[in-house]
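Worked example

This section walks through a single chain of length 231. The input is the sequence exactly as stored; nothing has been trimmed or padded.
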Amino acid sequence: MSLYHHKIKMSNRIPLRELENLRHSPSIGVFAVTILLLTATFTIGLAPARAQSNAKETTQEFINQALQILRDKQKPVVEKRRELKPLMESCFDSTEMARSTLGYHWRSLAPDQRASFTRLFTAFIEAAYLDKVQDYAGQQVLFGQSRPLGEGYVEVDTTIVQAGNNPIPVTYLLEQLGGGWKIYDVTVDNISIIENYRNQFNRVINEQGFPKLMADLRAKQQQLGSELGEG
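Given that input, the structure is written out below as tokens.
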């Protein structure tokens, strides 16, 4: 099974004009908080079934640590973001996610353009989801099955349980890199974050060009950074 196949298995599409609605939706808010709870320090060098089991156990351990941060009512939101940010940075393969969101357009970019986009996309993603830390309201995370998606790839099912609302299924797609595992896509209610951004970014590039996409992302990231007190 190819990496491309893993990335397009969830192909729901959301129009570009709904980016703001997506950012403010309850599901994405809860999903954003859950994203921050994961880390990439999974055990390797084991048989596949044992490795998956230990990956889940390790993830649960770090999620419990992050939940302690989120549940601390004496800790200011800004401090929670500062403590959670390293977890987020360690658990994502930001270069692969950036490449995947651009799809075939990535091949036409010069190395410096790729590097610039990766930095900007990573900053945008971090700001967008750290902005949702205050949305945490005691939600619980239940772990389901983990499944191999081919050598070096694993899918982990979770469910976010929130009082008074329907549970939200969240699935993490991970790839094995070096000494651990990193997330390269996440689906919420069967909506892939990478596929969603790819559809939006491709539309902007096709209609207005790559510089326009960079300008839009930079403006949005700066806006979010300002809201987070970073600028």
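What to look for: Residues 1-28, 37-47 have pLDDT under 50 and may be disordered.
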